Each structure stands twice: as C-alpha cells, then as structure tokens.
Amino acid sequence: xxxxxxxxxxxxxxxxxxxxxxxxxxxxxxxxxxxxxxxxxxxxxxxxxxxxxxxxxxxxxxxxxxxxxxxxxxxxxxxxxxxxxxxxxxxxxxxxxxxxxxxxxxxxxxxxxxxxxxxxxxxxxxxxxxxxxxxxxxxxxxxxxxxxxxxxxxxxxxxxxxxxxxxxxxxxxxxxxxxxxxxxxxxxxxxxxxxxxxxxxxxxxxxxxxxxxxxxxxxxxxxxxxx
Length: 227
Prior knowledge:
Layout: H1 2-18, H2 27-30, H3 32-47, H4 52-57, H5 60-88, H6 94-105, H7 108-117, H8 132-150, H9 156-177, H10 184-195, H11 200-216, H12 220-226
Helix pairs in contact: 1-6, 1-7, 5-6, 5-8, 5-9, 6-8, 8-9
Family: Belongs to the TMEM38 family.
Membrane topology: Multi-pass membrane protein
GO molecular function, one term: potassium channel activity
C-alpha cells in the first residue's frame, strides 16, 4: 500500500480534493485491473525468485523506459487535473495551480508523512522544503494553464504534448549525464529574490543550525560540574 501511495499519491490526493469520483476517480477504486496489475508488478520486482525483473530494471535502457512512462503519466495527469479544475472552479486561479501541482508532484506529498512516521524520511517534507518534484509540478501546471486556458496559445493536446516533451527530455538527459539538471532551482531563486522571501532550503538550514547550537549548549548540571 505504501508503494501504491508513492506511485499514485498525486492522483489520489488531487482526486480527494476535487471530490468528483466520476470525473476524477481514484485509480485503485476505478478498476480491478489496476490493483491486480500493480500487485503483480510489485511481486515480480520484489519477490520473483532469482530477481530477474529487478535485475532487468537496473539496466540503463529499462530505467530510461520506466522513467519515460512515469513522465508521460505525470504530464497527462497534470493536464487533466488543470482542465478539470478550470471547468469546476471557473475564474479561480488557485484551483488549477494547486491541483495541477499536486498531480505533477507525484506521491511525494502523500508518502513523506508515512516515511517520517516510521523514521525513514531522509530529509525535510517536500511540502515544507520543495525540491525538483514540487517545483517542476508547479511550473508544468502553471505553464499549461497559462498557455491553454489563459492565453489560449495552444490547444489542450498541444499543451500536454509540450509539458510531456519537457519532462521526457529532462528525464533522459539527467540520466545520460548523471546529474539532476534541476532547471527549476534558478527559477525559484529568482522568484524568491524578487519577493524578498528566503528560500525554504535556507530556512531549513538555519533551523537545523539553530537546533544544533541549542543541543550543543551545556545543561545547568554540566555547567556546575565544570565549575
């Protein structure tokens, strides 16, 4: 179940916020085949004797193909959520940006609290310190909304193709060069500088340093012993 939330968390969370099970259903509840296919794939990757599927997925061509499929699904879901938000909440700017961003971020917003609860979260929550996942989700949703629904420069199919191409190109290039190629970070730095709001990672670093300095202070009993 945790793996399912990690994979489909963006769709699940945005579906719950939209509250329209007919037009934005939760994938697992929409069809038996989705649950069966997911369970079969999970077992094959993790528990197939000999680990053949896991070994195949560790090969670079398979990794690239899997990431490409993920980015195609991500772009499609993001565009669908923006379209539906515009339809259900006409004139509300926050609706397509929020729902599209959640859909485009994947399962990070949903899985981070679970990982934190079991002590497996390697860093801050994505929602408090956004990384490439959240930033690219927001940029993709905002770009699609502006191009398709605000300025009407592109059709829905063209807008989806544009963000899909951008995600596919980034995924392939980052794997080929072995570097994250986070093109959203400079954009975030500029936006925060113009707004005169510190970057979340800077705030997290400052909080961590403050906590470390507090922890390093001697307790009253230790001070008395030193004297």
